[in-house]
Amino acid sequence: MATVEARVIEVPIDNSNDVLEIDCSQLPSHAAEICDILENEGSALRFYQLFALEYYKQGHVEEAVVALKRGMANAKANDQTAKVPLLNLLASIYVQKAKSSAATTGDRSLMLEMATALLTEAGRIDRSEANTHLVGGMLDLAKRLPDAALRHFDAALKAAPRSVAALLGKARVLFSKHRYQHALEVYQQVLTLRPTGRPDPRIGIGLCLHRLGHPADARRALRRAAEVDPAAAAPHILLATMDLNDVKRMLDPRIADGATQRAEELLHSAMAQLHRAYERQPECAATLVRLADRLFFQSNYDGARALAERALKSADTMGIQAEAHYQIARAYHASKRFDVAYDAYQKCLGINEKHHLARYGLGQMQLHRTDMSSAEATFQRVLDHHPRCVEVLRALGYLHARLPNTKAKALEYYEREMQVLADEAVEHAKRTGQPADDIGAWFVDANLFLESGLLYEASNAKKACRAYSMAADILQRPLPNSTECAGDAIPELWNNLGALSYLTSDDDSAIFSEYSQAALKCSKALADARVRLADARKGATPAAASKAASEIQRLECTLATITYNVARFYERCGFWDKAEALYNSLVADAPTYIDAKLRLAHIAFSFHGNSERALELISQAIGIDSKQSSAWLMRGNVELQRKSVQDARRAFEHVLKDLAKHDIYALCSLGNYHLAAGKSDNSRADNEANPAAAKKAKEMSAQSYKRALEFFDKCLQLDENCAAAAHGMAIAMAERGNAGDARQVFQDVRDAATAGLGPPTLCNPASELVFKIAKQQSASVDGSGVSLLARSPVGCDVLLWSGVNVAHSYVEVGNYRQAVLAYEASLRRLQEATKAMETADSSGTDSDRFVVAALEAKCGGSLTATRLTDAERAERRRVERDLRLYLIRALYIQAKATKDIDIMRTALSHIQSLCADENIKLPESALKPDTATKETADDADGDVEMTEDVVESGSEKKSLQVRISPDDCLVLFDLALIEQSVAQLVSEQPESQRTLQDLTAAATFIAHSEAAFTFLAKWGKVLQKKKQKLLFSARLATERAGYSKSLVTKLTRKQQEQEAFERQRQEHVEQWHRQQEEDEQRKRLEVEAAAKAQQELERKLLRDAEERNAILREQMAASVIAKQDEGETRSKKPRARAADDFISDNDDLAGSEDAEGLGSDAGEQARRSKSKKVRLSRKPAVEPRARGRAKPVGALSDEEREGETPPPRKRPSDEVESGKYKSKAIVTDSDDSS
């Protein structure tokens, strides 16, 4: 027999009672020798199993396999059951070999297949063997089939309920399936069965308790495991791991609240536990891996790699092997040996594909190799298992930010990361009971917001501004053990904040604050860099000097950009002198700074009105860089403003042909050019008398419209949110007769501009961003002033002109009401914006606020705001006049269509107000019929001067000179036309719907209209002779003047007719009033007579009631007396009553009737009833006095009845019949009921 203590196995000798003792400590090196002995002695198969176990314990795995195979070969055919333990043991050895670190992938698969075959054979022989199911469970675990393993362990426990190995296997499976409570119960069962067994179940108990959220109990279980087995390393490793995890949580910079000392204590405790584990088992793979992890965080990458390689050699489980490869990979990764790290990560994932940290590292290596598609797939696999992992979200955002056409996806990942961090902040606040107001303090990585801001710049400037603000807040936090902050070295961030605020906000104070901080930080950093450069040169350190020089160059460029943006800010505020001084300083420091020269050209043209100087500066910029498209675009814009249309067209075409064929500004400008050409050709065709010439003009117009649509379509292909292109395309559609579709496009443009989605950017970028140029403009209004679009030049106000064109389209389709509302809204928008800008200019409150101290030395001039230049103010006045004329035209057309005199009067009121506001009126001489007019040769500024000879008293003549512009002539023409229309509508009204005052006013209007048309007809001839632009038809003015004369005659006749009609109507009205008075008087008398009759009737009724009451009182008194007499008579002489209860005719019944049921004839009726026999009721019913009844007219009041006996009441139920005689029963008083 084998004795464990002596490690001696006694083998029985065949055909003898002796045994052969074999010392297990001195086994032969080859198991074949032992097998030969066993075969010679005919030993049982269990001895092969025993020696195989001894060889396996001593590390001779192959010899154990040889012993088991020899034993199975010697198994008897009739006793296959004895072979099952050998099959199970050999299968378990193959499973262990498959799990060893030395096994390759092919060897591992082969081992598992061999183990499967052995177990299949064992199951065929004996299906109820517990060990077969136990080894099957181990095999399934090696194959990563936890459900199948759990079934095998349950089957083993069914066969052997107290099998500790099966219980441990089941607990392990339950733990891996996160069923920690069930696993805990199984481990506790193992502890009950074998308290001192190996492996120690207390370790499993500790792990389960830790997972269940009981860390104190888990530590207690692990400490007990270390006490029970002082040589065990696992408890110490797990205790160290728990301490290290606590340290990580405590040292989190977001939640560290004075826990540094406690973290240091835990860190020392963890290292002490690791040292104890290392002392007990120096080659324990788990201990080595954990120590390697600590060395990695101490930046000892070589030491960490060496320990991980030792762990890899001694690892007996695949999990430890994978972890060892991961530690090796991350050590190579940190040492920048990326190729070796890539291979190590691959090995780790080859062993454990669920090692997500290794997969994350592999994704980083793929990023380094620029294998973007593979990196994306790798990170996505990690994200599928850990959707709230901020590191993976950051990596995917970084990856997509650098891939084409995936910027939106990158922003999505960055936003998810922000949301995860915000949720963590809220959860932490709930756990600690702190308020969750300051979520921003939870964010500690500014790079997240810097990357997000860069991406947002191209799509949403407001979100970009918020992202940069968050980054600035993080960078403004003081550095550890320092009063400085990391943001001091990044002035570009504050410059970007100012530029984005410039584009999205109306808060000038906030914009100035950002730019001021940017200039201050940049100036300070530049001074420090220059000091470092001087120190480096003195110390003869070329590397430091080179670095400082590079830093100085960067900061100087940044300061120039900040200066440029501050100048742009001054332009926005109307501080043109300050802006010009800053631009001049930039040009002086850097003569090739093209943007500064172009802004100087803009100031020269827009503020000073010096187009020659503007063109000169633009030419200088083109001389510096002839391929600078911005300079050519500005040249085209200036030429267009100067009415040099062809020069402007050539500039825009040059940009498209030679510089940038997809420049949206040039495409839109050329589209507008062809649109204007089409409108001009169309007007010429309408006015052309020659049919051939008119046809040619129509063809040219159609061609121009087609070219315009091509340019606008190209713009929309490049930028679908280009409102200017959509606006131009809608205009072309409306000009070609498709007003309905055009109106829809105009409405879409207006809605998009209102929502801030697509306003056009038709001028140079408003500000420079160091990180990236942003060209997005927003239409938001924050309540502090005029919106950005309204503050921009009136020609660039998308909301204004889209609203105007929507109104135009409504007029074309006949929806005049909506057209009037749209015109009024547009006019109101323009007036409010202009008023706000004028108010800002006149307030002068900005002069002391916007002084950038760091740039004050470069600034000249004064801080006097002039947001509205003279040219812009004149343009706004012109646009306002046009809008008012559009509104008047819509009202006029609506009134003509509906023949509504009220709407026509409204139009007249509007145009009279326009004339009064702009002092437009006819010359005094034009209102005099005896004035002779002759023209002179003066036509400066488009005005025409006329000399008028006025005939005065005697034969003297006085010469007067009058000047009037063509635009004023148009307003006067419209005024005269509306006055004529009002007079015509009044004359056409029925006599009953107008008044003499209306006709008198109409006569005044027609007189003024006639004078105006006469004057304009003469003036039009003067303009035609001078070949100047005529905005109205002189022929039509002559015709209208003639019509006015005929209308004067008609109105005179109508006045006479109206006067007669109103006189006759007045007579009818007076007669009607008299008739009404007579009728009212008659009705009044009738009412008075009726009232008197009613009063008389009431008096009569009152008298009758009083008489009835008097009779009633008499009857009541007689009744009382009769009752008294009857009582006395009965007391003296009893009456004889008949058998049928009748009384004789002599009985006194006077006064027995109900007072309420009898009238004035009641007494007489009672007297007549004496001759009849009346049957008396034995139990008369008496009604309660509480029942309410209406008091009859003339009835007694309560005071009158006081002291009298109330009369009896008659009830219908008291009526009785007796033979042919019928009478009403007498209801007596309660005293007489007997």
From TrEMBL:
Keywords: Repeat, TPR repeat. PROSITE patterns: TPR. Residues 1059-1084, 1122-1234 are annotated as: Disordered. SUPFAM superfamilies: TPR-like. TPR repeats lie at residues 164-197, 322-355. Residues 1142-1156 have a biased composition (Acidic residues). This is Protein required for normal CLN1 and CLN2 G1 cyclin expression. Residues 1211-1220 have a biased composition (Basic and acidic residues). One of its GO terms (cellular component) is Cdc73/Paf1 complex. It comes from Coemansia spiralis. Transmembrane segments: none annotated. It comes from the Eukaryota. GO terms for biological process: regulation of DNA-templated transcription; transcription elongation by RNA polymerase II. GO terms for molecular function: RNA polymerase II complex binding. Residues 1168-1178 have a biased composition (Basic residues).
